[in-house]
Amino acid sequence: MPLYQSQQFKNEINSSMPDDILKSWEMLKRLSSNFTIENESAKMIDENLHIVIQTYLDQNRDPDQAIISEFSKMLANLEKGGGAPGGGKVDEKQVKAIIEDALKNRKVSSDDLSNELKRLISDTRLISYVLPDAEKGKAPKPAKLRPISIKIIDDLRIGNNVMLIGGAGTGKTYLSKQIANNVWGKPPKVINCSQWTSPTEIIGGFTIDGYQEGKMIEAYRDGHVLLLDEMPKLDPNTAGLLNDALSNTRLSGKDAIIQNAKGDNIEKHPNFACIATGNVYPNSTDIAYAANNKQDLSLLDRFAGSVYFLTKDEKFEKATIGIKFIWQVADRIRDIIEESKWEAQMSLRWMIGARNIFIREWERKHNKRKDGLSAHEGLTFAEYLDKFIGTFTKEQKALISSKINYDDVMYKYKEQLLSEKYETFASEELS
Hints:
The protein is α/β, with parallel strands linked by helices. It has three domains: 5-78 and 90-122, no CATH class; 147-309, Rossmann fold, CATH 3.40.50.300; 314-429, no CATH class. Helices cover 47% and strands 8% of the residues. The protein has a five-stranded parallel beta sheet. Strands 3-4 form a two-stranded antiparallel sheet. Strands 6-7 form a two-stranded antiparallel ribbon. A hairpin with a 5-residue loop joins strand 6 and strand 7 (265-267). Pfam families: AAA_5. One of its GO terms (molecular function) is ATP hydrolysis activity. It comes from bioreactor metagenome.
């Protein structure tokens, strides 16, 4: 039994296939060392990829040629067994010509597909992993989606609007974009919400450059995830423009028509979905987040039952960052910020940046990059950390440096930089 289900298509993969399939295929081969080792990330890709490949091949095979081949086999068998009607010799070429002539104008429609294949085409989402340049070589394996992601994806696929609530740095925006890019296969349409967000950005409008379509309209029409980042900051009157679209996410066709700023009727794409993020649930004002607004109950009802309160997810962060000392430093700084109740944050975005910079620096140190730079010539992890700490007050900087034991952090960093293999989290630490 093969290690990976996609192996069965080894001889059918070719350059005429869509780029998404080819990229995922190459990623699967690379992670599995050409199907010779078991790899968790490879298995996760394989779980969806083999269905996508099968669906693509079934859609693009020539059914007429398949029928001709079957007839040819049957005729050949008849000849061998002398079982032709009337006992005469079967002329395979003649029969083949008759079949081709009868089928030459025949076109395949959706009715020709089996119900099972229709279901697969409808339900399948290709999950692709694109490793940035900085993550090649000895970089950690791509992280799985957070466990909560599966619930969120279920919510979105059955037509519910999702709201993610959590403090700064809990990964709300990162998680939303990860779902959009990896599951929907296309980037989200993002509205960065504030009291200054205009109706033009939502439903479109006329500008000095002509008519500009709204991001909500584009997502609704083209099947993107609409990401309302920091939605509670919207002016409640402007937020009312979202109501029509968000009330239609379970509907389809002519039952799900909205209008843009020009009055054009826009029909909902089956893949339209909406994720809103915020620091607090906007059913009241909040002293800690003064920029947030209390939102109308009719808007909040669009998210009823699908509100997720996010907190720090250590397992997900460790799996995403991979490099042990970087996550430990970041987590300690976050604890200091929270204990001191400072208006600051240690975000997953900063952790990923620190990881990518360190990997690039390590690769230069070990001559694994072809850019011709030495490790100290490019941006270093030490500089990246210092620039972050430099955003705090003098007293805060002193406290952070003391509590993380800055000298020890620098010693560990240099030790890892010189090492032939830097330390990553063991599998038991991620389980």
